[in-house]
Amino acid sequence: MAIFVARRGEDGLPLTRDLVLQVPRGCGKTQIAAALAGWMLERACREDKSGTEIVILATMRDKAVDVVKRLEAVPNCKSKAWKVTSVNAQRPAQIAASAGTIKAAASTPQNADGISPSLIILDEASRMDETFNRARSSTMKVPWSQTLIITTPDIDQYMTPYGAMLSSVEDALDNGKPLPLGTLAVMHQADVGDDPSNPLTWAKANPALGIRIKPAEYERRLCELNDPKQREEFYTQCLSTFTNDLSAAIPVQYFDECVEEWDLESVRGLPAMVGIDFSIGGYSGAQCDLTSLNLAVWDGTKLRSRNWHWWAGRSMAEDETRTRMPLRKWESEGLIRKSGEVINLDEVRDVVAMISRTVDLKFIVCDPAAGQAGRVQRWESEYGWPVSKAPRSAVYMGSAWAIWQEFVRGKRIAFHADPVLRGAIESSKTETGPTGLVTVRKSTERSNNDPLIACLVAIKAMNDREMLAQSMYGADASRIAF
Question: Does this model's pTM top 0.85?
């Protein structure tokens, strides 16, 4: 905070115009906002300045007014130096002083218009609409104006005006690049793969743990995680990250309950489908792609699912930071194969060949990247594997998601243990499209859900070819346990 207010250029103007502070609940966001607003007004008074305008906008008026209420305890507020008005009225709350005012109001476009703030505080920016952009544009006409953007995360924040700014900040932090000019950022959060029940995760996510928040409170909240809405609240508000329980998504615990070790020999000769989500590799932007292959085998009573994964790119370490997934650890454990800068299709073909020698491979459905379609299509003429392209339309992927999640919820699927797929599920969320179908997408710009997409296209192809409708009596009875 000292850097935010103290760094000045030779012209005396602030070098930091925007401070982004994204933290879990209980870190003292309101107190920080009150302290900064009060300090800046008091400094202006002591320097005999005039015209200082400090504006606090929050998603609810009560939240903004709470900042003013915190300042009522400041000694100057009880003297004639500061005058507090409108705290209990519907109009903006205000503190008036010789140097200027502090105004607190709801974050509406009207309250963001017609202001020339020295400081504007946007409380819970991740939940703001167009007011966010309107408020920030008001600072452009005031060269000495600064903005404190302070918030807990929200599941839909990347679809808000704040999300565009957040993406550029996260890209810089993850890849060691300079932050946008005039911007500072402090972000505390748990990463994908962190154990939410581990006190070390709590401390990593919440710098106020043990100071303002007792660890016992986190322990109490953990006992409530059987309810999806409570779990979503715990992840976003306490760990400053996301779970994918809402909007018909699958809690990762459902995946865990379907994990069952099995090997290829146990499904020898049974009908199978392969789904592949291809990547090219070599990306240097904000995206990390995996090539993932899913084998789906129907044994007459249950779908058996197993994945293989390949990474291709320029720096696995950078992609690990970008996705917040332990890619190098997974590679050392043999869960991911390192293909080089560009994906080696021969390695994928060799796995398909190994699979085809064991199961009755009926079809391969895939989504080749640019330049790969021709080579993949030749697999049919060269090896006899029927190949088709998976549409990525909302209708196709929406029905694929509906089938897959129904099998998972009904425990009609047996996953081979796969932390990579588990991480993809954790990094995914769902949204309802214009057709009314629910489709799966990445929870953030940096996330990776290729392993999940491979599963979806495989089960969709099996369903379309009525392979999942076979009676258990059509399967080898020796493979069916009652």
Answer: no
